[in-house]
Amino acid sequence: MIEQIQQNAYEKDSLMNELEDIYQSYEGLMTTNDSLNKKIIEQKQHIQDLMQQLRHTRNVDRAKIKQLKEEVKTLRKILKSYIRQVDSLYEQNQILLTENRQIKHQYQQVVEEKEQLTQMADSLKKTVKEAQYLTAYYIEVKALNKRDKKTRRHRRTRKFEVCFTLSQNRVAPKGKKKIYLRIAKPDGEILLNSKSQTFTFEGKEIYYSSYREIDYDGNAQNLCIYYDASSNKLVKGTYTVFIFADGVLIGDKKITLK
């Protein structure tokens, strides 16, 4: 009789350990599936109830032990089933995460390729636009007196003559063009005869000293532009002549008056 009681007590402890072991296995068993999570929580509560009953039962007979052993077997089967479902869901989630990363990577590649194409298109537009720019070279600036003779004296200067060669450019737009001069005094002030003399440069209206309209056919062209400085008070020093065409600075030259 005593041996039977001891055996029952031993098996009770063993069952308690198994239930605790099963319960612990459920502790980390959670998924993103709400329905499965609910079943897991219910199963954990059921195991807790069994352990509570077992703790408060002093004498456990053979029939009860047999019943509990069968229930533990069932609990282990259910646990294995849930573990398989959790593993399956985890694998599916990993596949989805991998696919999501691949989609994000592909999307990022598309975005980067689009940005590269946009940059290439912008660069090409800029290159084409720059290719259309003209250039003024062989620039010669003369100060002329009232007899249109060359002088270096600021007091005798009545006119500026600016001669240069306009470059050949087969891709530049053909037709009428205005070539502007800006003549800056030594202090930077622009020589002009009217404050209404402006043109657009880099999105701003700026003054010009003189201009000449030409008919450009894509070939190199020699021309001169004059500025009447008789109404200006000139000073000695270095004057800078800037030449513009199509809203772009195409050349510059300095001249020093004594």
Structure commentary:
The chain starts with a helix and ends with a strand. Strand 1 and strand 2 form a beta hairpin. Helices cover 46% and strands 28% of the residues. The protein has 3 helices and 10 strands, in the order H-H-H-E-E-E-E-E-E-E-E-E-E. Helix 1 runs parallel beside helix 3. The protein has 258 residues and is α+β, with helices and mostly antiparallel strands. It has helices at residues 2-27, 34-55, 62-131, and strands at residues 136-144, 150-151, 159-166, 175-184, 198-201, 204-207, 210-216, 221-228, 237-245, 248-257. It has 2 domains: 2-103; 136-257, Sandwich (Immunoglobulin-like).
Domain tally: 2
Q: Supply the helix-strand structural class.
A: alpha+beta
Succession of helices and strands: HHHEEEEEEEEEE
Total strands: the figure is 10
Major sheet, described briefly?
Answer: 4 strands, antiparallel
The fourth-level CATH homologous superfamily of the largest domain is Immunoglobulins
Compute the CA-based radius of gyration: 48 Å
Strand content range: 25-35%
Helix percentage range: 40-55%
Shape, please?
rod-shaped
Low-confidence stretches: none
Output the number of helix runs.
3
Distance N terminus to C terminus? Answer: 135 Å
Name of the level-1 CATH class of the largest domain: Mainly Beta
The whole-number mean of residue pLDDT values reads 81
